[in-house]
Design goal:
about 260 residues, about 40% strand, six-stranded mixed sheet, 14 strands, 2 domains, alpha+beta, Nuclear Transport Factor 2, Chain: A
């Protein structure tokens, strides 16, 4: 990987009117790989690189909580939230199929009890960075690590039941075996969030089809009696979701999709 320090020096060099070599304030050149861009982004959020090296001038970062979505456009606005803490990646980075000249991926971090983010980059700079967190906007879940083997085994069972309950043949009875009576499923599109409460409302979307999983599932630490995990599906070309379950029943199922609603 390219080091943060070397990446920071990639600004254009120009001559001033006095003939002195100076650093240009012009936009920096694009990065050469997803690995390099991911490293730069982690460094920028830790204050070790500049955000305009990472995000396009009109790049958008969103953070979707249980109760709202906060949106920041351009490096200057993103800087207002990036300075609040460094990113601690967890689990694998999931590469998502994309068009020529574009990169798309999902990654996971320890913030807020375990969050997941979708990224879209064009010509080596991030144009979208959309995250979903398992808490309200005034919440303060601690950072977490990865779940232990025992918890992952319980998640295996929950996931098998979950995906078995989605599809054209689903029913209210099937979903009621997976989702708690007051469970909430949300779908955050680029422009709107749609919310469904309880198995009866979730049935309206679960009947559309069973998602196919892209890459590995990421299992988070969770309090006693709870399970927490995230995955990437092929819905809309690449959707990331985080889940919370209590006593084996899903209570939250929150997703970010890379399309308008």
């Amino acid at each position: 990987m390219l080091s943060i320090g070397r990446a920071i020096m990639r600004r254009a060099l120009v001559f001033s009117s006095a003939g002195l070599l100076v650093l240009s304030a012009a936009p920096v050149s694009a990065t050469d790989s997803v690995d390099e861009l991911v490293e730069l982004n982690v460094g920028a959020w830790a204050g070790e690189a500049e955000l305009n090296e990472v995000y396009a001038p009109d790049g958008v970062h969103t953070a979707t909580f249980y109760d709202r979505t906060n949106e920041y456009t351009g490096p200057e606005e993103i800087a207002s939230v990036a300075g609040r803490g460094s990113i601690e990646p967890l689990g694998p980075r999931i590469e998502i199929p994309s068009a020529e000249g574009e990169w798309r991926w999902a990654s996971f971090a320890s913030l807020g009890g375990g969050m997941a983010c979708l990224f879209h980059a064009v010509d080596g700079q991030i144009t979208r960075h959309d995250c979903v967190l398992p808490e309200p906007s005034n919440g303060s879940r601690p950072r977490v690590g990865l779940a232990d083997v025992a918890a992952s085994s319980e998640i295996d069972v929950a996931v098998e039941r979950l995906y078995g309950s989605w599809g054209p043949e689903t029913s209210l009875e099937l979903l009621a075996e997976v989702y708690a009576p007051d469970a909430v499923h949300t779908a955050r599109y680029l422009d709107i969030t749609r919310s469904y409460t309880g198995p009866e409302e979730i049935l309206a979307v679960a009947s559309h089809g069973s998602p196919g999983v892209i890459g590995e599932r990421v299992d988070f630490e969770a309090p006693e009696g709870e399970l927490a995990w995230a995955d990437v599906s092929d819905v809309a070309g690449g959707t990331v979701c985080i889940y919370r379950a209590v006593d084996g029943m899903i209570t939250r199922h929150d997703c970010v999709l890379p399309i308008a609603g």
